[in-house]
Amino acid sequence: MNKSFTERMIRxxxxxxxxxxxxxxxxTVVLYRGHLIGFINFIVSAGVVIALAVLSFVLLNQxxxxxxxxxxxxxxxxxxxxMYDELFAEQYxxxxxxxxxxxxxxxxxxxxxxxKVSTKQAEYLALQNQINPHFLYNTLEAxxxxxxxxxxxxxxxxxxxxxxxFRYTITDIGSLVTLEDELENAENYFRIQEYRFGTKIKMxxxxxxxxxxxxxxxxxxxxxxxxxxxxxxHGLEGKAEGGTVxxxxxxxxDKLFVNISDNGIGIGEEQLEQLNAxxxxxxxxxxxxxxxxxxxxxxxxxxRRIKLLFGEEYGLHxxxxxxxxxxxxxxMPLIWSGDIRV
Amino acid sequence: xxxxxxxxxxxxxxxAGSTIFRRLYIRLFHSDSMGIVFDDAHERKRLIQFLKGxxxxxxxxxxxxGQNLLPEETxxxxxxxxGIIERDKxxxxxxxxxxNIFLCAADSSxxxxxxxxxxxxIAELNRQLECNxxxxxxxxxxxxxxxxxxxxxKSYVEGRKLIxxxxxxxxxxxxxxxxxxxxxxxxRSLGIGFIVIxxxxxxxxxxxxxxxxxxxxxxxxxxxSGTADGNKIYSILLQGxxxxxxxxxxxxxxxxxxxxxxVLEFEDVSAGLLRDFNLSIGKGEVVKIYYTDDRSCSQxxxxxxxxxxxxxxxxxxxxxxxxxxxxxxxxxxxxxxxEEQTEQKMLLKNMxxxxxxxxxxxxxxxxxxxxxxxxxxxREFLGQYLGPEDLDKKLSGLExxxxxxxxxxxxxxxxxxxxICIKPFSxxxxxxxxxxxxxxxxxxxxxxAVIILTAKFSDIHRIEGENIFLRNGKTIDEDEVYQxxxxxxxxx
Lengths: 342, 492
Description:
heterodimer, A: alpha+beta, Heat Shock Protein 90, 2 domains, 5-stranded mixed sheet, B: alpha/beta, Rossmann fold, 6-stranded mixed sheet, 18 helices, 20 strands, globular
């Protein structure tokens, strides 16, 4: 176990006091002898004292100052929301009780309640749309039937896509779904947007060919659609010639990487910095329910949900160069259907 | 299924109140190759220091080959598993090729090593990497390409998992780069990952599967090398360069009606490897010489700086026979040089900006340093472009773009007849390259003839002017260059 801060201070004070005691002793010897030998003694003693003083300083720096600055940096990052679990994993010893307090505090934090807070916004949005789901589905089915009988296949298709999208969006917000379902919902959403934008926008999905079962991976529901929505409305809509949204996935032994990119107008450096700063923060206090006040709320919510569900090493990060497009990279743990890892 | 080799998330680094990296994100998989383009050469140096294990990040999540690391744990691991290949040579001249390769290999436990000891191991390496290590000459005779290939093999033998190339495209010509690329493909198939740190260049697009752009200490963009529009990204990175152009002087000394006369002429010059070389350049003109072998370049430079004399033909400067005993005499006669790696070779760090720029004025104006009138007028001139408050600053802390400008201002005020620029676009910083183009144009505007020597074919399109192509000392035409670049077998 590490020595406490106080213990270290006491040891160093003792060393420093010993050094000064030796210095005083050496001076006394010199004063009383008053000869050449005494002078040499003094020089040697002074050398020893200086060496001890340097040693004391090195010890003070290594044992106290450096750990102090390191700890302070971690506390600062915690307050800025850049760090969560690492703070509790660190062994702090300013006084032994402090570590116990931190451990107890960590145990007291109910992670599940934080997850609930994060899903609250999504549920709220769902409720807004859930005036009467059955009435909505029946009406959409009726419109689709009319469109088919009238030979309006495109209206029938868009109505079907809308119906599927609502059904998927409204139910079971908090659950995990398969990558296949999430991609299908993304395609449905894109089909609806295509009706508005026409051939101006395109979507490509690239899955690794060698991974046959990748579609059975589990991902949080409604992870991709908000990102695609952002890509269309903040990236491609402002570009006269339109563009393409590309979804790419990659897996390792324990992680799933999803990259949703667009070749739209991109994001300015300052705005990107602010967005990423918010995406990196994990604290529940950052939950913002004021939808529509600013762009990127949905992305923050997706990132927060992923971080709270799986840990702060997962989440979203945005890369963008104004004029050259945007990449949203999502990192999640690899969870196969049937795994219980959350 | 891929395997992560290096992952850095939210990396931060800085010292003494200045931030170097703020949101550094890098993710590389085994057997993959990633490009890194920097907006600033200073950040590039720091990242290489970090990958060498000579610097630590202050914070960030770091994972190397499946192992989560605290920032202070990276140096030990990086020193062991990351190989950096750059301009500095890492092979020991007094050792054989085999000894160099196996010296630090993990399973090298013998006390007495020699070429015979490793016969089987070399044969096995030749088989694995499909190369012939026995064909390499002694270390002191290695070409840059051979040296880089051997350093790659050495890294592989030493069990390094990641190889980083730092600005190697300026050391090699296109064919040599193709050979190195072929070796990277073989090594990638053996699980080694590569990071290619270059200026925004075709090698980034060709060698890597994706590349990232680090700007202002942050990973700003990630692009698929196969689909990204390189020209567009390059122009975005250079936004703001137009503003800098306004600060470069346009002196327009030439009169339109002035009769053209050659400043420097090579008439059927032969010397060493160089055979029947002809060149004629007038005031304010640019001639770009693309060479496929270093000896052709060094022969031309030697002819001008007194390193050698023509065995046949004549060199004329302003119509008179030109000879120089040394570089100093060449400069006095009006033939000046901008060398590669200008910052290290041409600037004196303990002198101020003004002293560095005006360094050679004493050769042109007698008692220059004791004549306040001259000093004042030059200060006023330089102050307009370099900033009056910066003229008395020491060089440390100045941006690479500023340092590059200083070199060219030195010749701009010295006003020689010809400036020879050796690999002028070899700097790692894209802004430095862009300012170099502007400064060469400023030299031309002042009536100074500029000869550009480059081993990189793409560089000849950076600036307008006549092109000359040299291969093994002989002038060839552009079609032959294309044949040379694209028809030869690039295998090792």
